[in-house]
Amino acid sequence: MKSKIYILDDHPIVIEGLKKLIDQQEDMQVIGSAEDANTALQQIAKLKPDVVVLDITLKDRSGVDLIKKLRASHPTMQILVYSMHDENVYAERCLRAGAMGYVMKGEPSTRVLQGLRQVAAGSFFFSASLLGSIVSGGGPRGGSRGEPARMLSDRQLEIFEMVGRGFDSHSIAEKLALSAKTVDAHKANIRQKLGLASARELLMEAVRWVEK
To answer: Which residues form the Response regulatory domain (predicted)?
Structure first.
C-alpha cells in the first residue's frame, strides 16, 4: 500500500512542488494539504495520513507547538519537518517535540524522498552529526547561533525571532494568541537569559540572529 502523505506549508509553490515530486512515486501519494495549521488539524483528523510534512514557520501557529499537538492527538502518525531553518538550531527542538525527521529546503529531492520513506517506516531521519550530538548530550551546534537556541525555550525563541523580523509586542501577541503583557514578560526573560541590558540591545541581537 502507498504511504499517505499530508503537506502543511504556508507557501503554495512549496506544496505544489512536493505534490508533484511525491505523486510521481509508486510507494506514496499526497492525500491532502493546507497553508495554515487550523485547516490542517481539521483535515488530518479526517484523512488520517501516515506522514505529515510541515514547515515550522506557519502563519497562524508555531510549528514546534503544532508538532507536540499532532504527536499527542495522533501518536502513530509520523512527522517530517521540511524547513528553511538551520537544522543545527531547530532540529533538536523538533525531535524532542515529536518529529521523526528534518530536511532543509534546498536539499536534493532524493533526500526529501529518503526522509519520507524512513519516517514512514518508523525510523528517524536526521543528519548523523546532529543525532550524535544529541545522544552525547552536546545539544544543538552552530557556533554563536547556538546561544539563543540553547538558552531560550521554544516560545521565547519564537518571540525572539519575531522581534528580529520587526514585529512589536502587540503584533506578536495577535499572531501567537497571547496578551501583549505576556509577550513583554517573555521579552524581559529573554533579555535576562541572554544578558542584554535594554530593549534596544534585544532588538539588535534579534536582528543579527534572523539575518545570519
So the answer is: 4-120
